[in-house]
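Q&A log
Question type: sequence-to-structure
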Amino acid sequence: MRWTSALLALAFPWAVAAAPSAGDRLSFVSCPIVRDTVTVPCWLAEYEGEVYFLTLQTDVSAPVNPPWLGHQVLVEGVVSDEPGICGGRVIKPVALSVLPALDASCNTMLPAEDRYNLGFEPPRPPGPSRGRLAFGDPTSRSASAPGGTAADGATLKFSLSYEFDGMVAFRHAQILQRILESSRANNATGLRITAYRSASRLSNGTVMREREHIDRERAEQIRELLRGAGLENVKYEVSWKDLSKRPDGVQDVANRRVDVVVVGAN
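Response status: OK
Response body:
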């Protein structure tokens, strides 16, 4: 029996490999799958024989944007112990990055099934999103709102997270608005903008690195967006750092970011 098990493990490693446990980190590239429901579509992905729930098809300003058919998606997150959704194990938290190359094989759409009905309430009324690419948060935020952390008695710090190889997107609208409002409300004298380039170590050992110079592009884009919104009477200190040399599969997502420190806050 032991010999039989050993031979099976060598010939068919997938047949005996244990499924990931709750709390395990996963990082993989896969074709997304969209499943229809009577309320809102949900997005899934398959990896090593397991189906995982990624997110719902919600507003573009949501913290996690859904992937696209016709493109592979980089999935990075932690396997949750929550009940499955739409027939997939939940990954939460999860970061999704749509890869730019077209892939015609990524076209799977599953029909609605009664067992997968979701009690979902839309996050906003029907109609076009009110958000814009950068400064589109319709709700006024105070300087102490989530997203701004007091670094010391005279500064506030904000962080913007990014998709792999990504730049500013709809979901950054609120935090950019908070930076703008905090700077004005506290008579900021300067902004320190530090951007980072990262890499992702996949669960199978493959390493994906973001394109060169994206750290600089991110930093300069944030500066120009804030200037374009009228924040001109502050000193901008812009820098960037490459953190792509040693990805560990744990901090890779957190390293794709821009930090903004508001200097001279009251």
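Response note: Residues 1-10, 12-16, 122-147 have pLDDT under 50 and may be disordered.
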